[in-house]
């Protein structure tokens, strides 16, 4: 029996179309901030299919925060969200071998599995799960993916900031997130204005490098 | 960051971040009007500045211990698929033994064969549990399905409503899953399993794999 038995071409094409549109827009940098690490994802998945636990941990580090954030937002419950993340990575661990590149990116696969796991939890939680009720709760797939995507960028930016030295992180915090002037920052840190200038510059430069390493494009 | 026209790169960065004093900003603006190199550099800084903004998005962070927990569970679980469903069923059965008034009703085992083009065969056990029941499905020769397709279990209510009771993924060609239902079997007429082609699609109109009636004990 072929797996083709369950492929309704029209439906699949529609889903694939909406997914590929999204990905082409991310790779061309149409929005402010994209995470593009297709090759890294595929390499990790190939390793995971060989039961490489370090690769699983790496994929977890890349995606767990965004997937968790999405699940918490949908379920309003951190422990339920943890189960969602667990479901997702269990599935990745067990099914990595069956993932095929031509079916879409690893990221889209992760998003799909996450979204499904969230729906599954919502259903399980409902006392009387009904198809009607569940369908009403669903958002369009594209909206959910955009939301997870935004969280992926947010978590990647945070990860990039975490890679900076404390001094660099602090100066960006003061300059950008708190909007303080150079003189003000100099006073807060007890250093010369010239030091603030160069430290801000090097902090931004370090941030850019960290972003590049994480596949994060502005 | 690589090219420079001699203008202090620190000022370009400070300008993009908005920390350059007003007089210096005014001077730089005049310079930028005639210097493509610096303007390009400032533009790049500005794009990264926008990226910084994305970090402001409210996002629930997972606690660090979650990583250890999940990775340990996931790796350990690889030979125990569907353990959650199985554990639920086991718990339900354990509960039955203690207090259920319907526990003395024997489980009903119904042999099933898949509808074409599927080839799976096996049995569906309906086990009374508390006020409800557990549906245990064991099928062999199951199409493993390609991600993101999954099997979905349904009950057809007396009222005509269709209720999804869970999802299952086969382990190889074996589908071994249990679905706990907390309502009495008399509420339902039929049980069936579909192959949902796409986990991302909410349409739930996948073809039927097996179907059977629900015993009324």
Short description:
The complex is a heterodimer of chains A (218) and B (217). By secondary structure, chain A is mostly helical.
Explain what this protein looks like in three dimensions:
The complex is a heterodimer of chains A (218) and B (217). Chain A is mostly helical and 218 residues long. In chain A, 75% of the residues lie in helices and 2% in strands. Chain A has helices at 9-27, 38-49, 53-75, 78-95, 106-125, 131-137, 141-163, 166-177, 182-189, 193-213, and strands at residues 34-35, 216-217. In chain A, helix 3 (53-75) packs antiparallel against helix 4, helix 3 crosses helix 7 (141-163) and helix 8 packs across helix 10. With 217 residues, chain B is of the alpha+beta class. Residues 77-103 of chain B have low confidence and may be disordered. At the A-B interface, helix 1, helix 3, helix 4, helix 5 and helix 6 of A face helix 1, helix 3, helix 4 and strand 5 of B.
